[in-house]
Amino acid sequence: MNTIASEYSSEKQSTPIEHSFNPYSDNGGTILGIAGEDFAVLAGDTRHTTDYSINSRYEPKVFDCGDGIVMSANGFAADGEALLKRFKNSMKWYHFDNNDKKLSMNAAARNIQHLLYGKRFFPYYVHTIIAGLDEDGKGSVFSFDPVGSYEREQCRAGGAAASLIMPFLDNQVNFKNQYVPGTDGKEKRPVKFLTVDEVIKLVRDAFTSATERHIHVGDGLEILIVTKDGVRKEYYPLKRD
Amino acid sequence: MNVVPQSNFKSAVSSDQDQQHRSNAVPSLPDTLRQQAGGAVPLSSQMGHQHPLQSRVEGWEATQRARQLEQYRQVFGIAEPMKREMELEIVERTDFNPLRREAHSLHEDILRGNDTSLDWEDVYPAATVASGMNVANDVHTKIEHKLQM
Amino acid sequence: MAGLSFDNFQRNQFLASKSQGQPKATSTGTTIVGLKFDGGVLIAADTRSTQGPIVADKNCAKLHRIAPRIWCAGAGTAADTEAVTQLIGSNIELHSLSTGRQPRVVTTLQMLKQHLFKYQGHLGAYLIVAGVDPTGAHLMSVQAHGSTDVGFYLSLGSGSLAAMAVLESQWREGLSREEAIELAADAIEAGIWNDLGSGSNVDVCVMEVGKDAAYMRNYRTPNVREPKQQSYKFARGTTAVLKESIINVCDVEEQEVDVSA
């Protein structure tokens, strides 16, 4: 008498019982920071997901931390929130200890590096970007990997659709692969600072395009714009499918 | 339940086992010494030899046929399956067609009751799926073999 | 050996053990529904196909014709749903020619389940089969391992829960053709909005007893993209010409002809 092996019977014998808890998850979303001459923007979509489900269509993830610094930690939302809280707390203490001295972008960046590296062997599962004005009033964007390696950049995309947006930014912000017409590729198109309006157009197109092709991006786009006058917020709806 | 080929298939296949042979010090680098890839231990012995479906699919028709003949024997007696097998044998012998390769002829299909159905065997004849393994199976070789050239 | 080839199994396993793993097939992380109404049956589907988190096709067709009046909506591995429906479609036509009768939905279902059972779920096709034949209108579903269901309303795919929520609350016996189409489209939209594996448009196919099937591609398009903020047209010459070579494929001779004459 033969029996047909069922999935259950083979599983019962061959699979050892594992007790493993996975502390991380991925909540999707994408963020994008661009520095201009006298301003900086940091934008993020407002969709919050796990796997194929939408948890919220409006869950902001770009925040004004004070001192003209905006910050977003994209990836595992709980870690992002924890990191943001810790940074804000650290900023409070900085003000308390230093007679309300304004925290510079360079100092903020170094502080975040330490917050991240301090958890080197149980990292915050996030791609972090901060944006603001440096001590000369020039726009600046700093981006961090999950364990604290960071760099000041002109523009940077992070999160789920970073690989979709970054090439677009290289081409449209830093004019990569563009040459001056008529020079037969001898002369690169000179880079210039974009205006706020131009940058917002680029950001909106980057996000509508990412929404078209990435399932974890959509619902809404929130842009925080830092100028010498302070931080301004703009919201644009994105496709919800 | 021997209508379908008994097999040792698993219904779930993992394609990423064998990842434990890595150096601890440098996790991303394969440890050649411990893995002995291409060394003393032949690679083929470290891998599964067949797709879990292969034996089932390849043995499918033969098993079905055997079962059918068995039923004929039980219902009509031994003469029935014998007659059918003889008819098939006759068709297979007389119907020499070097172009047909592995595919069945119409006569054969009628005798097997397959003449109004298709399966992947009809869509993908052996010659189109083989990876250069049966080059000796072409028309010329078949005719030369038939005429003993 | 003819048929689906296993030739490269060992090689692929070796490659998989040495690298990141095997290439992923395009899957239609889908919402599909089917429901019966007064005088017929219909099926509907969304039009997004994905490769992991990336949208591979924004407007793909998931409704397949098996026979002129038997249609089928597919979820699962895109290639498998396509291949299996085409093969069974051919078999149904051959069978119909051989018997001289109209193809039947039960025949289609039996062929599908026998074929899928043979391949033990390795063909990842999850189908909703619907159609009209001389015995009336029918609605059934087949799972990849070969099990089947019959029902008045069915949904399948990653968005099946969202769609079923709508069907469970709104389906009733004796729906009219128009009511049924709207209900099916609403169910698919529930999947489009709430399931990330589904998106874009709604396709519908209506089969009424005694009539030809009506395939309504992009019956609803609730996801038209807004126009871009600016044009990304490059000035001519922005891309450098590194090398230029002209190959003369044929000899060109010019000759003046007086056309006024």
TrEMBL record, chain A:
Its main location: nucleus. It is found in: Nucleus. GO terms for cellular component: cytoplasm; nucleus; proteasome core complex, beta-subunit complex. PROSITE patterns: PROTEASOME_BETA_1 (PS00854), PROTEASOME_BETA_2 (PS51476). GO terms for biological process: proteasomal ubiquitin-independent protein catabolic process; proteasome-mediated ubiquitin-dependent protein catabolic process. InterPro entries: Ntn_hydrolases_N (IPR029055), Proteasome_bsu_CS (IPR016050), Proteasome_sua/b (IPR001353), Proteasome_suB-type (IPR023333). CDD domains: proteasome_beta_type_1. Pfam families: Proteasome (PF00227). The keyword Nucleus applies. Keywords: Cytoplasm, Nucleus, Proteasome. Signal peptide: none annotated. The 26S proteasome consists of a 20S proteasome core and two 19S regulatory subunits. The 20S proteasome core is composed of 28 subunits that are arranged in four stacked rings, resulting in a barrel-shaped structure. The two end rings are each formed by seven alpha subunits, and the two central rings are each formed by seven beta subunits. The catalytic chamber with the active sites is on the inside of the barrel. This is Proteasome core particle subunit beta 6. It comes from Maudiozyma humilis.
UniProtKB/TrEMBL annotation, chain B:
Residues 1-55 are annotated as: Disordered. Belongs to the POMP/UMP1 family. Residues 1-26 have a biased composition (Polar residues). Transmembrane segments: none annotated. The keyword Protein biosynthesis does not apply. Pfam families: UMP1. The lineage of its organism: Eukaryota, Fungi, Dikarya, Ascomycota, Saccharomycotina. This is Ump1 protein. Keywords: Chaperone.
UniProtKB/TrEMBL annotation, chain C:
One of its GO terms (molecular function) is threonine-type endopeptidase activity. Its main location: nucleus. The active site is at 30 (nucleophile). It comes from the Eukaryota. It is an enzyme of class 3 (hydrolase). GO terms for cellular component: cytoplasm; nucleus; proteasome core complex, beta-subunit complex. Residues 222-257 form the Proteasome beta subunit C-terminal domain. It catalyses: Cleavage of peptide bonds with very broad specificity. It is found in: Nucleus. Keywords: Cytoplasm, Hydrolase, Nucleus, Protease, Proteasome, Threonine protease. CDD domains: proteasome_beta_type_7. GO terms for biological process: proteasomal ubiquitin-independent protein catabolic process; proteasome-mediated ubiquitin-dependent protein catabolic process. The 26S proteasome consists of a 20S proteasome core and two 19S regulatory subunits. The 20S proteasome core is composed of 28 subunits that are arranged in four stacked rings, resulting in a barrel-shaped structure. The two end rings are each formed by seven alpha subunits, and the two central rings are each formed by seven beta subunits. The catalytic chamber with the active sites is on the inside of the barrel. This is proteasome endopeptidase complex.
